[in-house]
Amino acid sequence: MFSRLGKFGVAVTVASSALVLVTGTVSHALPDTTGTAVVARPPVTVPSPPPYKQLALKTLHQVVKGNFVAVSARFDDSIRQEGNPAVLANAWKEYQDQLGFGRYQSHGAPRQVVSGDRTVVDIPLRMAKQPGDFRVVFDGKGHIEGLWFLKKGVPVP
Fold this sequence. Notes:
By secondary structure, the protein is α+β, with helices and mostly antiparallel strands. The protein has four helices and eight strands. It is globular and about 55 Å long. The two termini are 16 Å apart. The relative contact order is 0.23.
């Protein structure tokens, strides 16, 4: 089933996916096999998540808290009319209640894909009845040009 309001709405299809995010610093030392000094390699640092992931997490947090005005204020011009706060609130309610996902419980680590001049971020959702995904599409300026509540694993077009 796929229900979409332009670049904004609720979509449901069947798929699955998983992601493991590793962050932190790793430092290795070479073993001392000669009885002399040990040479240490410089630490390897995994970079912080890109800003789009942070923006997507902030957007999800605002949706969950019911702050639909703040979310819709970041919409680009192409979806501002069809993606007003009332439409967003109704889509979130429909996703949880009528489509059978149940209430939001928590979320996993965001996944980011660059597609042309757009950045797509998916966040896995743990819902009361079945898992889902929250997808937000950003333009090059960080404005939201698409937002969907999806069944888990819907591929990025």
